[in-house]
Amino acid sequence: MPGTNAYQVDIAMGRDSIRHRRDFLRFTAAGIAGCSCNWIDLLAASADTLRQRGKACILLWMAGGPSQFETFSPKPSHANGGETKAISTAVPGIEVAENFPHMAQVMADAAIIRSMTSKEGSHPRASFLLHTGYLPTASVKQPTLGSLVSQAIGNRHAELPDFVRIGKRSRNGGGAGLLGVEFEPYLVAAPDRPPANTRPTTGVARYRRRLNLLSRLEQDASVAAGRSERTDHQKLYRRTASMILSPKMRAFDLESESAAARDAYGRTPFGSGCLLARRLVEAGVTCVEVGVSGWDTHADNFKRTRTVAEPVDRAMAQLIEDLKHRGMLENTLVIWMGEFGRTPHINPRSGRDHYPRAFNVLLAGGGIQGGQVIGATNEGGTAVVDRPVTVPDLFCTFCKSLHIDPDRENMSASGRPIQVVNGGQPVDALFS
Known about the structure:
Distance between the termini: 32 Å
Strand order of the largest sheet: 6-5-7-1-8-11-4-12
Number of helices: 13
Shape: globular
Radius of gyration: 22 Å
Largest sheet: 8 strands, mixed
Helix content: 25-40%
CATH architecture of the largest domain: 3-Layer(aba) Sandwich
Order of helices and strands: HHHHEEEHEHHEEHHHHEHEEEEEEEHEE
Low-confidence stretches: 1-45
Structural class: alpha/beta
């Protein structure tokens, strides 16, 4: 959309005056056609500029819905808090659950939203909502956050994928949807070993000759009915060939890290995933999602949460410290969240059930000012009483951090324009 281009130029050039050209460009096709510049290349160039500045995103996805009481919104003085104790953090006045001692030490670099609220309590639908900002529909395939970010600010010349998803695929996290196959996540099931089938088995020279032959064969195919599929196939092959022949593939090899670094992150799948996420962002990947399951604690909530929290606490704290030490945290947004929270009431099985009405999210980096808490719930944690934050608000906040226009529109297959975020306002207090 022309308006989108104008906004992206505004970001890249830092000129607010360019925004005022939106309406003119949107409704004056002749102005676009007669412009001496190529707007598509300009849009891509502005995205490249943002990526060159190091803008990136790491989503730590807690599949199942983590309990706010056992993570970053403890209520030790109320019966609803259960047996979970609160501990002090590096920031006076901010406490977190005892399950996160490492995160407590880096709280000056992290911010907690304790007033997240939603109406969706079904795992698949809520997972989709928190990944895309939209509820699922039959008519439009909404893109997941990583695809949105890679499309908006990814480097089109990058040799590695713009979006990498590590670990078991999160429940209904979605893919590129209407953005197309080039923005689908590259899946890495096991972060401890390099991706399979990423080395030519015939030698580089012969591999290149085979690619050239394939390209000529596809060019000779003139069946119009398969044109779209052929184009997608060619995009995938070009990007894949560029990736596996790139020396940057070393980023996937954790064996090059020191034993001390591996130990600091924790030698667990999630710990290795977080270390790999740092390496990939450092190598130029725009968005990385690292997932861990086990948060669906309908029974034995306290013990099970302690078990799943331990590797998450260690790895997330080390990731934030590592990014900060390398000068990357300011431009890398780190998101910790799941699809909803858990009920204040403890059920007869010592568990907590689904509760989207009030839950928490933690953010760090990407311009987020750490050492603060946004919003609050009442004494028993049953309702938000201060600064409610909706899912659209949260996505607008992501966009503000990453310099993405939340109003920019992508076109669905049916020709319907879909905004990156439908409504909402960024939580400005997080940036001050």
